Amino acid sequence: MIIETILGVLAGGLGSWVSKIIGLYEKKQDYEHELKLHELQMRVRQHETERELAIAETQAYSAMREASYSHDSATSTTSQWVNDVLRLVRPFLTLLLILLVWAIWISAQSSVNSHLWGAGIHQKIVEGVLFMASAAFAWWFGDRAPGTKKLS
To answer: From the centroid of its chain, how far is CA 146?
Structure first.
């Protein structure tokens, strides 16, 4: 009877310890599961934020493009020849920049003109003209397709 009592106490204590160990293991698994779930939620939020940022950038770009179109098409009560001259400013500037780039290319090919200007001044002028020409080409011939019409 004493042995059965001791064995009962040992079995009960062992069972209690096994139950506690299993409980700790389950808590660890629950914690790991929650941690993974939290990481997945953070990734989803990050992707949502990136999508919202991309949408905001697209909307801002569309608004700028729409403002550009409305500026280009907006004419006040001026005469038609003034409107025509205003519409020719960008093409004229673009053509002028093409001619400037061409003139710089010709002068760079000529060994006579290459030593007349100082290297620093000539370099700054070339960089400035090339920047203006590339900006004009990107603006003039870039993606300026009209947007989709909004249905109201």
So the answer is: 21
Structure tokens at 105: 């290319």
Query: Hunting for tokens 């400035």 — which residue is that?
Result: 128
Residue 21, C-beta contacts closer than 8 angstroms, at least 6 positions apart: none
Kindly report the three-state secondary structure assignment for every residue of 3-14: HHHHHHHHHHHH
Query: Higher pLDDT residue, 152 or 143?
Result: 143
Please tell me the distance from the alpha carbon of residue 66 to that of residue 147, in angstroms, as a whole number. 8
Determine the number of helices (DSSP H) and then strands (DSSP E) in the chain: 5, 0
**How many other C-beta atoms can be found within 10 angstroms of the C-beta atom of residue 96?**
13
Whether the Cβ atoms of residue 136 and residue 97 lie closer than 8 Å to each other: yes
pLDDT for 147:
55
**What is d(CA 62, CA 76) in angstroms, rounded to the nearest whole number?**
24
The whole-chain average pLDDT of the chain stands at 78
The structure tokens 């106490």 sit at: 9
